[in-house]
User: Fold these one by one.
Assistant:
Number 1:
Amino acid sequence: MKIVTIDTLPFDDQNPGTSGLRKKTEVFQNPTYVENFITAIFKASGRLKGGILVLGGDGRYYNDVVIQKILKMAIAFEIRRVIVGQNGILSTPCASHLIRTRQAEGGIILSASHNPAGPDKDFGIKYNTKNGGPATEDVTGAIYNQSKNISFFSFADVDDFDISKEHTIEAGSTTIEVLDTTKIYADLMESLFDFSMMKTKIKEQNLKIRFDAMNAVTGGYAREIFVNRLGLDESSLLNCVTLSDFGGLHPDPNPTNTHELISVMKNDSSISFGSASDGDGDRNMIVGGKSAVVPSDSLAILCANSQYLNGLKVEGVARSMPTSGAVDRVAKELNMNCYETPTGWKFFGSLLDAGKITLCGEESYGTGSNHVREKDGLWTILAWLSILTARNMSVDEIVEEHWAKYGRDYFLRNDYNVSSEQGANIYNSLASATKSLKGTSVDNVKILDAYVFNYEDPINGNKADNQGVILDLENESRLVYRLSGTGTVGATLRVYVSAYDKNDTTSPVPSKLNAVSILGAKLAKLQELANKDKPDLSVF
Ligand code: G1P
Ligand code: ZN
């Protein structure tokens, strides 16, 4: 087998963000761009040589081309075995599971997660390490350093491999194992939940559901789980065929993007449980007859109802810093530890590995448990289904019961799309204003505390500074500011707004949070520094 080595020059922008390297597809299509970054990954993770690599993606445009490039480079790098999803398809949580169960050194997931797909849309490459979780900052830093010093890359000069069927291919010193992961993932879910009880109760309760895969990676897994194993009707599935452009959908499961699901739920009151997942299957949205469940609440509700999760013993919980404090109230009541981490799933890994937490989540439609080291959309949906069937209650009833007991943490996120310079300027100005803001009142609202969130991992002591600016306001209201690390153009300033009310749990979110939202924009000087009089997007 001929190994070809090609000279290359470094790119200066291969610095992974919140969740891998994410750029416009056309950037990845630049000659040698993919090869450079893959070489940087291989070199930064020395033990891949002679080890096992898991490989797959969410099926988006360019997935097929990049899979073949990586297979050929893996042979040149003498990786012992590459486990690749059939047709290159592999959800993020399933990749995490495979890395863990097959003792792989790591995994490469081709996805820009919830960003749209296509030649003029987004692509991404994410590296996960041995524990199955996203590479931590030290590893992504090493990858970035390698990318800045690359001078050549190598690949096996062979035809494309047939990855359309399950089989094993020997190539040089590498074995390529093509796997249909549908069964593997469905088996994992069946090992975590009592499918036979759920199936019986679904029938007894005549439960009707809708699940929207948004034409992304989870379609096949969902059919196997919901229809084949849980006996639900085929009509339960919406957009369950994986398409390279996701059928033009924006596979970010929130109420703005899931029109079809929301309107089906509104028009047919006999369907009491709706759900959706994102491009690579790690995010989830839960919908009741009335409205979508706020992800921060979803985490709290799973924690409060964990006795209905088939015996899952919850040792502790964690939430990302912008996520509302709803889960903190449950943890306090249950007398368990609750950790606050920076944004990004990579920060939960050490806590999960150390057995300190069992459940974790983010406000950005992500929840998961210790069964893998990624958030898991279908797991969360099954967890809700497990609770609903065990308690014979609807989503709306469960949410209302929760608020009645704990009060309600109103939450929304305002996104402002600005230039990179404006984003940096707004954020840095806020960070340097924290000292002077603390203890003052603005528009009659007292700012009790103001600080930059610097994190020290309680398990390994790793530090991650400057992860956001937090303003704690009176009456348990809070503003959090940070810059997105997953965008591909300019900058997005995220302003997270929350307020707690013990008694009033039924107000519309925008009106309840209006005053704090306006204060948030004013304190960030959005009008003055970026000419913004309203957010580009409000998610609630
Ligand atoms: C966003 C979310 C974050 C999530 C990440 C990957 O990152 O806010 O919670 O972990 O996507 O799904 P951001 O763009 O804010 O950096
Ligand atoms: Zn995702």
Number 2:
Amino acid sequence: MSKIIIAIDGPAGSGKSTLAKMVAERLGFTYLDTGAMYRAITYLAIREGIVDDEEAVSKFILGLDVTLKYENGVTRVFVNGEELTDYIRTPEVNGKVSEISAMPAVRKELVRMQQQMGKVGNIVAEGRDTTTVVFPDANVKIYLIASVDVRAERRHKEYMEKGVDIDIEEVKENLRKRDAIDSGREISPLTRAENAIEVDTSSLSVDEEFEILIENIKKKINL
Ligand code: DC
């Protein structure tokens, strides 16, 4: 088995992260959380006070060194050596990440870094555009979907577990807004790759989803 790439795509809250981690662990592959990279840049753009200034962000991204370390179920993210892991999953970052990830200069740099990371092979890459732009030749492409109500419930539960008190309607609104920006943007819009396997996770348990994915992966590659 050499240099296999599995790419998992889909809208926010469709279960991508949970399943990508499980698949990577089962296969002994490296988990590549591309969303963590967009989140880290968004956090820094907010901190630098340039989040609404595309020109400034486009300059800022050049020359940054973004690295990921997946440990004990968590993707740790570092930019120029500074760890940002604890700051990238806040409502503030969630509110701005779609705008930052719609910027062509940001996508160009991060896609370049992700393709570099993918060169080692045996990875499970997760995120919008991993099946279409980052790894169009991935051995297996999976596109997860779920209803907006189910996705909002999942995100709300995650916030509650982290002690973030937020109304579920606000979570739903945020998801709708992100879906619209992510699907409507000019470059790398959220779309299902033609040869991706689509799985609707709305009414499945995590274990059921995992089994479906593993079955499909087995059909595509020799495990
Ligand atoms: O998967 P996530 O929720 O951590 O992603 C955060 C945001 O980053 C989401 O709004 C879409 C964007 N993103 C992207 O545009 N391309 C990727 N490959 C991964 C994430």
